[in-house]
Amino acid sequence: MKNRMIPILIGLMAFLYIFILPPEPLAIKITFKLIPIVLMIVYAFRRLPARPAPALRLVVIGLFFCMLGDGFIAVSFVAGLGAFLVGHLFYLTGFIKMSRMTKLRLAAMIPIGFYSLIIGSQLIASLSEEGNDALVIPVIAYMLVISLMALSAILTGNKRAIAGSLLFVISDSILSWNMFVTDIVYSDVFIMTTYYSAQFLIASSLSSFEESAGSTVLIPDVKQQL
Fold this sequence. Notes:
76% of the residues lie in helices and 0% in strands. The chain contains ten helices and no strands. The chain has helices at residues 5-20, 26-46, 54-72, 77-97, 103-106, 109-129, 136-156, 159-180, 187-204, 206-214.
């Protein structure tokens, strides 16, 4: 399969899952939910150099664990959350290995932290009101990790990785807000379109990391710096 055909197939399968398939039977729905991510993993592998640096491998492993999270979360929120958390830790580690800190990039921790504080405080209040105190710690841990993942992507200066990580934060924010705070109209569409877009951007960022990941210092191309 040619590389340029894989994104088209990903888009078609994502459209089929989001807009066409009914919610039942659940097994078929989950299967089709995973197909776009499986294709993204294939796409990511095909964009890797012959001897990829460990940092790039970590990002692909992160994709794999997020795929597991897709399947688990349909039957167990905690299991899905755990798999996504592991996936973000792989993303975080991979991006950190390819990062180059500047004052401007480090300043991104301010809006990210402010956003996480606002969303997190509302989620924790809603969980406590509903008697879901057991979820408070896992949700806090997840928000901390995904926030750090987004910051680590910004530190790389890679535009696709940055866009993908921020879309991931938006997708998870919509998901958690819809589950624990208040219903959001067309939440499923918003969650999955931002999620699939996020994962595709992260997967497609690997080729632009190739030169920096293969070097000793792991510094992104100067043209990609903010």
